[in-house]
Each structure stands twice: as C-alpha cells, then as structure tokens.
Design brief:
Belongs to the short-chain dehydrogenases/reductases (SDR) family. By secondary structure, the chain is an alpha/beta fold. The chain is built from eight helices and nine strands. Strand 2, helix 2 and strand 3 form a beta-alpha-beta unit. Helix 3 packs parallel to helix 4 and helix 6 packs across helix 7. The longest helix is centred in the middle third of the chain and has 29 residues.
Amino acid sequence: MAVLTSKNALVTGSTSGIGLAIARAFAAEGANVTINGFGDADAIEKERASIEADFGVKCRYSGANMMNGEEVTAMVKDAEAAFGSLDVLVNNAGIQFVSPIDEFPDDKWEAIIRINLIASFYAIKAVLPGMKQRKWGRIISTSSAHALVASPFKSAYVSAKHGVTGLTKTVALEVARDGITANAIAPGYVWTPLVEKQIPDTMKARNMTEEQVKNDVLLAAQPTKEFVTVDEVAAIAVFLCTDSAKQITGTTLSVDGGWTAE
C-alpha cells in the first residue's frame, strides 16, 4: 500500500517548481491533492489533469491569493470539505525581493512577510481542528537555508523564513500529543526553471561562462557545488508523512549541500 493512500493533501504554491514536485510525489503515494498558485490557466489545468491521469487520484485547484488571510482560510476549508478530510498541509508558497533595507519598498516587504509567513499561520490555524479531531496530521513548511543563516539585501525573506522556523517549533509543541507533526524543509539553491532562466542574463552581466555562473555565483555558498533538485525536496516531504517519521517534529531539515555547516 502506498504511504498516503486514503489521505488528502493541500500544497500551496504548487503550480510549478518545488510545490508541484511535492504535489506529484504525494499523488504517487496515493493522496488526493489540492494544488494552488498563479499562472496560465491552461497550463495549470494541464498539470491538474496530469496528476489525476498519472496517479489515479483526485486533484483540485484553488486560486486562493496567499496575500489574503480570508482566502487562505477558505481554501483550507474548501479542500477539507471536498475530500472529507485534510491530512497533510504543505506551506510552500513564497516570493523573493532583493534590496538594501534602507531602500526596501514597503509593499515588497509586506508581501514577502504575508506570503512566506502569515499565510502559513492562517493555513495552520484552519487545518488544525480537523487534524486534532482525527488524531493525525502532517504540517510541512518549505523554508530555506535563510531560515538558519542570513544574506545581505534579503531582509524580508530572511525574516520571514526565520519566522517559519519559530512557527514550526511552536505548532509542534502545541500538538505534540495529538498525532500531528510540524516540520520545515530548508533547501539551499534548488534547480528550477526560474533559476535556469537567470543564467543567461547573469552570464552577460558578469561576463562569465555558464559553469562560472553556476559554481561561483549561484552555488557559491553550497560546498557540494550541486543544486538541490525538486524531487529531492519532495522525497523528504513524503518521508515526513510516514510512520517512520512520527517522532520527527518541531525541526527544520536542511537540504543545502552543506551551506549551513560552514
């Protein structure tokens, strides 16, 4: 029997990248899935239908805006009502903006904090009553190496991800006897289409080769000099849902090629 047979999951920010990989990994293990995010409507429908066709599960789409707490809450409740339960929540939605703090646009700061941190609070608050009633649940947040260390010009993102660490620990302690775990996964640089698209511009701007951009710019902080893959992150999310991981709670699991070891 697959790990998540008869379970239902919601993954925010899952129309591409890490979130989509997690959603597909859950579906491969038998879970019905609600995906969420922005993008081209036809492309999203193609991904939704592909999950159903490839894995024989049900897949819903929610276009809830992570900036809006009421929409986040409604998304959770709708997912729970549609499938009869919501057993796994993955807070994956996130955005980034880079700027010196004294020049940081106020609206960018607030958007990053809302999407990367506050949305997680609303989702967790909404999902916990059902999980407590069923005495089983898995709450997973996609964090970052920046939950543990800082980088210049990323004040909002670093603050939000440090906040995710604190939120994860607090939730884990509150539900420790309810059959629910709360953990975060903290990747370093992950190979996604978004990262890949940055390479040509960086090559031109810095007069570097593709390999120089990868090794000396993007992977400068990762001792392995290898990108984390979305499938590696997804595999860890699946593992955290297994009975073997039921005593892992309140922790942030680094998947960063050794970045935070230095």
